[in-house]
Design a protein that fits this description.
The complex is a heterodimer of chains A (199) and B (107). Chain A has 199 residues and is mostly beta strands. Chain A has helices at residues 61-66, 94-98, and strands at residues 24-25, 46-50, 56-60, 73-77, 82-93, 107-112, 117-121, 131-136, 139-140, 150-152, 165-171. In chain A, strands 1, 4, 5, 8, 9 and 10 form a six-stranded mixed sheet that branches. A five-stranded mixed sheet of chain A has the order 3-2-11-6-7. Chain B has a domain at 33-98. In chain B, 5% of the residues lie in helices and 30% in strands. Chain B contains one helix and eight strands, in the order βαβββββββ. The radius of gyration of chain B is 15 Å and the shape is globular. Classes of the chains: A mainly beta (199), B mainly beta (107). Bound molecules: zinc ion (ZN).
Chain lengths: 199, 107
């Protein structure tokens, strides 16, 4: 079950300050799924940023692979209370994808293959905080973990890191996504324990 | 909420489509309704399929319960349970037909 090798250095112990309130450490990588797992062949995959004016910016899988990638090592925190520290990903920074995008929007609604959505402020996707990730611990990202590519926004609860990411819709007004319309917090900061609406 | 979920299809299995049938909703919905909602009939907004709530496909290895139509996979019902509130979303069903006992009407 373990994907991270036991010898991985620097893993903090339970009680470490890297663990947000109410969370416990896990060594596994639990699979959470709200529906059938989409299977998207990379030759049919594409990623689209749509601005508030309807302008579209598209990347094929080959386009994505041709962009410079980063290998962030990050802690991830699921709202169901597990946290996993020091996970290693590879992906393209959203700063790279947004360099050519012209928009006045403040909000983003992320869309996935399979119909999942999640919303967050656009500023939370920029400045080195978010990636389109396609490798995990050196391996191609498995479909059950959101492959071929998922959003990675580790500073928010992990439901914001949409699996099977297909696109980002930029909006002038905020629009709640799948879990945000079903009782979960609109922003989801694990350090402020923003799990449910009203937290 | 432990690691190593063992739904249908398995933790590391291919096609992790680990749903259960709608009877998995019985316990969580009994907290909210006095009737057995799994025996109610619902109509999928997306495809029009009509069937008992018990026939829905329930995904529970998620932040909330998600019940999908077995005909078209559209979300029919969602239930999120927080410590101090529950959210029940029924926008995927046009109506619930709940079988009632005639005795229950007469006071
Ligand atoms: Zn349907």
């Amino acid at each position: 079950m373990g994907i991270v090798s036991p010898g991985f250095q620097g893993r903090p112990r339970r009680g470490d300050t890297r663990l947000p309130p109410g969370q416990y450490l896990t060594e596994g990588f639990p699979v959470l799924s709200a529906g059938p797992t989409p299977r998207i062949p990379t030759d049919r995959w594409e990623f689209v940023i749509t601005t508030e004016t309807g302008q579209e910016y598209r990347w094929s899988w080959a386009d994505l692979m041709a962009l410079p990638s980063e290998t962030p090592t990050v802690d991830i925190h699921c709202v169901t209370k597990w946290s996993k520290l020091g996970t290693i990903w590879q992906g393209v920074s959203l700063d790279t994808l947004f360099t050519e995008v012209d928009s006045a929007a403040d909000f983003a609604l992320v869309h996935s293959y399979g119909g999942y959505t999640t919303n967050l402020p656009l500023e939370d996707l920029l400045d080195g905080q978010a990636w389109i990730a396609y490798r995990y611990e050196g391996e191609a990202l498995a479909p059950e973990h959101g492959g071929p590519a998922r959003l990675l926004v580790p500073h928010l609860y992990f439901w914001k890191s949409a699996k099977w990411v297909r696109g980002i819709q930029l909006l002038l007004t905020d629009e709640p996504g799948f879990w945000e319309t079903a009782g979960y917090h609109n922003y989801g900061d694990p350090w402020r324990e923003q799990r449910y609406q009203g937290d | 909420m432990t690691e190593g979920y063992a739904g249908l299809g398995g933790y590391d299995g291919y096609g992790y489509d680990g749903y259960e049938d709608g009877n998995a909703l019985a316990g969580p919905l009994r907290e909210i309704f006095t009737v057995d909602v799994t025996a109610a009939t619902c109509r999928c907004v997306s495809c029009g399929r009509t069937g008992e709530v018990a026939t829905l496909r329930v995904y529970r290895h998620a932040p909330g319960l998600v019940a999908r139509c077995p005909g078209c996979d559209a979300v029919v019902l969602r239930l999120t349970r927080a410590p101090h509130a529950a959210w029940l979303d029924l926008k995927g069903t046009t109506a619930l037909r709940i079988p009632m006992s005639e005795d229950a009407v007469s006071v």
